[in-house]
């Protein structure tokens, strides 16, 4: 009977899963991926991803040459968000379909640890796209820079600090704000600033220092 058959997945998904069979514990050799999504809105069920921007961090260095960016064809259009991210339904940017963008993103991130600001939303948007492809959720560990800041600075209030606020606090010059690649780069810079604080506090840095926030 069909329901007894083992569920099979496409080759790109099994290839993605293969990367998680080997675990690296040395913080200096871990590959982190700061990423951001621009979307048609804030509803993870009905809105869609407009663009994905990502950049790698390894050995406390941002690897500009190791980055990813894509723009996605819009099946859902919200004119209001154009004022924020400038992404028109049509335009001169080369755009790919959602499935292709997710396949490329998985090939890029592999088993890297994902870093995002208010990460739950970005991860939920990626997972929603995976669900539409009949695939499971992301397997990567995720670090939220907003939560790291609150723990590192012993902030006990319930306020959600925006990326703008934290960039201002840490004297990070903002450029390309509200573009996926620009916000990914700003998040990478913020992550390095916060990692430096943790390194000084713990006289070194291990992945376990982030475990409360993964």
From TrEMBL:
InterPro entries according to UniProt: DnaQ, Ribonucl_H, RNaseH-like_sf, RNaseH_sf
The keyword Nuclease appears for this protein: yes
Presence of the UniProt keyword DNA repair in the record: no
Taxonomic lineage of the native organism: Bacteria, Pseudomonadati, Bacteroidota, Flavobacteriia, Flavobacteriales
Name of protein: DNA polymerase III epsilon subunit
Organism: Jejuia pallidilutea
SUPFAM superfamilies the record matches: Ribonuclease H-like
Biological process, per Gene Ontology: DNA replication
A molecular function GO annotation: DNA binding
Residue stretches making up the Exonuclease domain: 31-200
EC number(s) on file: 2.7.7.7
């Amino acid at each position: 009977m069909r329901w007894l058959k083992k569920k099979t997945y496409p080759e790109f998904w099994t290839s993605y899963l293969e990367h998680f069979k080997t675990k690296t514990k040395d913080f200096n050799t871990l590959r982190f991926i700061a990423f951001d999504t621009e979307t048609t809105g804030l509803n993870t069920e009905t809105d869609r991803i407009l663009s994905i921007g990502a950049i790698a961090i390894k050995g406390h260095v941002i690897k500009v040459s190791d980055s990813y960016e894509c723009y996605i064809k819009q099946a859902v259009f919200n004119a209001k968000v154009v004022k924020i991210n400038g992404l028109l339904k049509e335009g001169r940017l080369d755009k790919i379909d959602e499935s292709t963008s997710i396949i490329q993103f998985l090939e890029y991130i592999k088993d890297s640890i994902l870093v995002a600001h208010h990460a739950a939303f970005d991860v939920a948007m990626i997972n929603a796209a995976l669900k539409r492809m009949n695939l499971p959720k992301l397997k990567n560990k995720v670090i939220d820079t907003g939560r790291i800041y609150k723990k590192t600075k012993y902030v006990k209030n319930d306020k959600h600090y925006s990326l703008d606020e934290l960039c201002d606090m840490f004297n990070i010059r903002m450029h390309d704000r509200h573009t996926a690649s620009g916000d990914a780069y700003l998040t990478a810079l913020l992550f390095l600033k916060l990692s430096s604080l943790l390194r000084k506090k713990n006289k070194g840095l291990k992945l376990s220092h982030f475990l409360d926030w993964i």
